[in-house]
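User: Second chain of the day. Same drill as before.
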Amino acid sequence: EVQLQASGGGLVQAGGSLRLSCVTSGFAFGDTTMSWARQVPGQRLDRLATINSGGETTFVADSIKGRFTISRDNSRRTVYLQMNSLKPEDTAVYHCHVFWKTRDYWGQGTQVTVSS
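Assistant: Same format as last time:
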């Protein structure tokens, strides 16, 4: 069973930083591309960043360029999102994602709230 457990969210002031983690199980993590996305209630899910199995970042959304960094530790089966210079508009639920054996899997998400 594929499981994605995101954590690390919280309440932070504008300009602050957070690091999100997504611990995974149930699939060949070291061979698989991973992504982070976020969703504001009532809006669509927006992909933020993607990293391939070799650790190369293959996509970064314009909204986070220069502020957020995706990384992974294959030995820990974990993907990270380092978020710096946070803005109130970054407030959302953040999800990690994997596409595995013809299906999309999303973690339960972690709430990030940025106060002004």
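Residues 1 and 26 are 5 Å apart (CA to CA).

User: Great, on to the next one.
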